[in-house]
Write a structure and sequence with these properties.
The structure holds 2 protein chains of 2 kinds. Chain A is built from no helices and 11 strands. Chain A is mostly beta strands. In chain A, strands 2, 4, 5, 9, 10 and 11 form a 6-stranded mixed beta sheet that branches. In chain A, strands 1-3-8-7-6 form a 5-stranded antiparallel beta sheet, with no helix packed on it. The termini of chain A are far apart. Chain B is mostly beta strands. Classes of the chains: A mainly beta, B mainly beta.
Chain lengths: 114, 116
């Protein structure tokens, strides 16, 4: 049973427009959520996170929204740039049985067209 | 700080052989994680350490897999009697966390294993 799902394998947007990447989770014990970006031949790199006590966290062009009742989070990138083209992974963590390990979704490949 | 390093970057082996991978985390990080990633999927948790203690192993991890972090610094992941289904990217990550907290993990570039 996949506990973190990214239902859109790919997304294509025009440079300067908004990119919205979505993620759903099923385990209500998750209380910390992260987004990672991955370029080919590299490991994932951390982008932004949000704790379950918040519903929004912003960092420059990146904003993550959390809807706990719907078990849904989204990453907004505004404005999108060609350098944002990468695979984006949503990840969730919880303090069970040990804090720290993350459960990842399968990723969404974002392509930003110039 | 040179980040998380993994060696080798690529490993090709024949079915039935044993392989060992090494991960050097960021020096001050106390937690170290191993993940496996196959094409089109996200990283799948294998195991993790807090200092030298192995706190959790995935129930998906067969007994052919073993990991160590002997002095709380670098870690090794060994796969015995490799099978073609073991072919994947093996990712190592580290983080600095205490108690019930958790922060972002810093990933290495991975070791790509191909079992022929």
């Amino acid at each position: 049973d996949q506990q973190v799902k990214q239902n859109s394998p790919s997304l294509s947007v025009q440079e300067g427009r908004i990119s919205i990447l979505n993620c759903d989770y099923t385990n209500s014990m998750f209380d910390y959520f992260l987004w990672y970006k991955k370029y080919p031949a590299e490991g994932p790199t951390f982008l932004i996170s949000i704790s379950s006590i918040k519903d929004k966290n912003e960092d420059g062009r990146f904003t993550v929204f959390l809807n706990k009742s719907a078990k849904h989070l989204s990453l907004h990138i505004v404005p999108s740039q060609p350098g944002d083209s990468a695979v984006y992974f949503c990840a969730a963590s919880g303090n069970f049985p040990n804090a720290g390990k993350s459960t990842f979704g399968d990723g969404t490949t974002l392509t930003v067209k110039p | 700080d040179t980040g998380v390093s993994q060696n080798p970057r690529h490993k090709i082996t024949k079915r039935g052989q044993n392989v060992t991978f090494r991960c050097d985390p960021i020096s001050e990080h106390n937690r170290l994680y191993w993940y496996r990633q196959t094409l089109g999927q996200g990283p799948e948790f294998l195991t993790y350490f807090q200092n030298e203690a192995q706190l959790e192993k995935s129930r998906l991890l067969s007994d052919r897999f073993s990991a160590e972090r002997p002095k709380g610094s670098f870690s090794t992941l060994e796969i015995q009697r490799t099978e073609q289904g073991d072919s994947a990217m093996y990712l190592c990550a580290s983080s600095l966390d205490y108690g019930g907290s958790y922060n972002e993990q810093f990933f290495g570039p991975g070791t790509r294993l191909t079992v022929l």
